[in-house]
C-alpha cells in the first residue's frame, strides 16, 4: 500500500475542468489498489494573479515542495495573450515553477491509440506503430538567457545558453530511457549554425561512448520537423533543447490525433509535475468540451514515474483504450464516421473511464 500526498494545481481555463477528471481517476485507483492518496490544491497562473497579484505565490511553491507529486492543468488567459506589454503574466508562474523545482527534463510520450488512427491529419499507414518518447530540456536555452532591448528599443534579443552540465543531465535521462525501449536515440540540434547546439552535440557524443548498446543519430531540427511527418515510426527516443522541443512536440501531437490526448512529465531531482501538453484553451473553456484524457494520462505517468506504480498506470491507459474501442469520443477526436451520440463532454467521458476502472 502506497501512502502519498498529491498536490492538484488546476491553473486556468480548461485546466480546471480536465484536472478534476484526473483527480477522480487517481481516487479510483487508490480505492481499487488499496492505496492512500491525500490531496491539497494550490493556485498558479491567471487565477493566482487575480487572488494574490503573483502568478506563483510562495504558498503554492511551498505546497509543491512538500508534496510527493503535482497534477497540473494549464496556465494562460486571453487578456495577456493580446497584451505583450503586461509585466505580470500567467506563464511566469509556469517558468518559475519549473526553475524553482529544478524540473529540467520534460518527457512527452507520443503514442497513438489504434482507434484514433483516423483522427490524425496524417495518413494511417504512415502513422501505424509510431511510438516516440521526447525528452525536452526545460530550464535552459533562449527562454532563460539574457533578454532585452537595445538601440532605443528598436532591437530585441534573447540569448540561448547551455552549460555542459545541463546537456549531460538530460542526455543521461534520455539514454537511460532508450535502454529500456528500442535502444535508439535521436539527438536534435542546429549544430551547423548555433554554438549552443555544437556544445549540445559534443556532450551527447561523449555520453554515447558510455552507452554503446544505444544507436545514436544526430539530426538538425529542420530535418526532424520534416521526418516526424514523413516517417514517424523512425523515432524511438528523441532528446532536444527547450525551444526545439517546444515546437517539435506540438508538431508530434498531431501523430496522437489531438493535443487533448497528450500527457507530459516534468522531472528533476525533487517533486515531479505531471500535465497535459495543451494550454488553457479559452475558446472552449466552460463549455464542457475539453478532452480530459491528456490529464488522465498525466495521472498515469505520475503513478508510474513518481510512485513506481506501473500496474496502476497501465490500468488507466487500458481503460482509455477500452473507452475508445467502445466508440466514445470527445469532439476533438471525433471524425466524420463517429456516431454523434457517442461524442461526449468532459465529465461524461470521464465517467466512462471511471466505470472501466
Ligand atoms: P491551447 O493548447 O490552449 O489550444 C490550442 C487548440 O487546441 C484550441 O483550439 C483548443 O480548443 C484545442 N485544445 C487544447 N486542449 C484541448 C483539449 N483538452 N480538448 C479539446 N481541445 C483542446 O493553445 P493556445 O490556444 O495557443 O493557448 C491558449 C492559452 O494557453 C494561452 O494563454 C497560452 O499561453 C496558454 N498555454 C499554456 C500552456 C501550459 O500551461 N503548459 C501550454 C500552451 C499554451
UniProtKB/TrEMBL annotation:
Cofactor note: Binds 1 Mg(2+) or Mn(2+) ion per subunit.
Feature type site, description Important for catalysis: 143, 190
Subcellular location: Cytoplasm
Transmembrane helix is among the record's keywords: no
GO CC term (a single one): cytosol
Amino-acid positions noted as binding Mg(2+) in the UniProt annotation, renumbered to this chain: 222, 246, 250
Superkingdom, taxonomy of origin: Bacteria
One Pfam family, short name: Iso_dh
Name by which UniProt lists this protein: 3-isopropylmalate dehydrogenase
Amino acid at each position: 500500500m502506497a501512502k502519498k500526498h498529491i498536490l492538484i494545481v488546476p491553473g486556468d481555463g480548461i485546466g480546471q475542468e480536465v484536472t478534476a477528471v484526473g483527480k477522480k481517476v487517481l481516487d479510483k485507483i487508490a480505492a481499487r489498489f488499496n492505496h492512500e492518496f491525500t490531496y491539497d490544491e494550490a493556485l498558479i497562473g491567471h487565477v493566482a494573479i487575480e487572488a494574490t497579484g503573483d502568478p506563483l505565490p510562495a504558498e503554492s511553491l511551498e505546497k509543491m515542495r512538500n508534496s510527493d507529486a503535482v497534477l497540473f492543468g494549464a496556465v494562460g488567459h486571453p487578456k495577456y495573450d493580446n497584451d505583450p506589454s503586461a509585466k505580470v503574466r500567467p506563464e511566469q508562474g509556469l517558468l518559475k515553477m519549473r526553475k524553482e523545482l529544478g524540473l529540467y527534463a520534460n518527457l512527452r510520450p507520443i503514442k497513438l491509440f489504434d482507434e484514433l488512427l483516423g483522427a490524425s491529419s496524417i495518413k494511417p499507414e504512415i502513422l501505424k506503430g509510431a511510438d516516440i518518447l521526447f525528452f525536452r530540456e526545460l530550464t535552459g536555452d533562449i527562454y532563460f538567457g539574457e533578454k532585452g532591448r537595445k538601440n532605443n528599443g528598436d532591437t530585441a534579443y534573447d540569448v540561448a545558453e547551455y552549460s555542459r552540465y545541463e546537456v549531460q543531465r538530460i542526455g543521461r535521462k534520455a539514454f537511460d530511457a532508450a535502454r529500456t525501449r528500442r535502444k535508439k536515440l535521436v539527438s536534435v540540434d542546429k549544430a551547423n549554425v548555433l554554438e549552443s547546439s555544437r556544445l549540445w552535440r559534443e556532450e551527447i557524443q561523449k555520453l554515447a561512448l558510455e552507452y554503446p548498446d544505444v544507436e545514436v543519430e544526430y539530426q538538425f531540427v529542420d530535418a526532424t520537423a520534416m521526418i516526424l511527418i514523413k516517417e514517424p515510426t523512425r523515432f524511438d527516443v528523441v532528446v532536444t533543447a527547450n525551444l526545439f522541443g517546444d515546437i517539435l512536440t506540438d508538431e508530434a501531437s498531431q501523430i496522437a490525433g489531438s493535443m487533448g490526448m497528450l500527457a507530459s512529465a516534468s522531472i528533476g531531482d525533487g517533486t515531479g509535475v505531471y500535465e497535459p501538453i495543451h494550454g488553457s484553451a479559452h475558446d472552449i473553456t466552460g463549455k464542457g468540451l475539453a478532452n480530459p484524457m491528456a490529464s488522465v494520462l498525466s495521472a498515469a505517468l505520475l503513478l508510474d514515474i513518481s510512485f513506481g506504480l506501473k500496474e496502476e498506470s497501465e490500468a488507466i491507459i487500458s481503460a482509455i483504450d477500452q473507452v475508445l474501442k467502445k466508440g466514445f469520443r470527445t469532439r476533438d477526436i471525433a471524425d466524420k464516421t463517429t456516431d454523434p451520440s457517442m461524442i461526449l463532454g468532459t465529465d461524461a467521458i470521464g465517467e466512462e473511464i471511471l466505470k472501466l476502472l
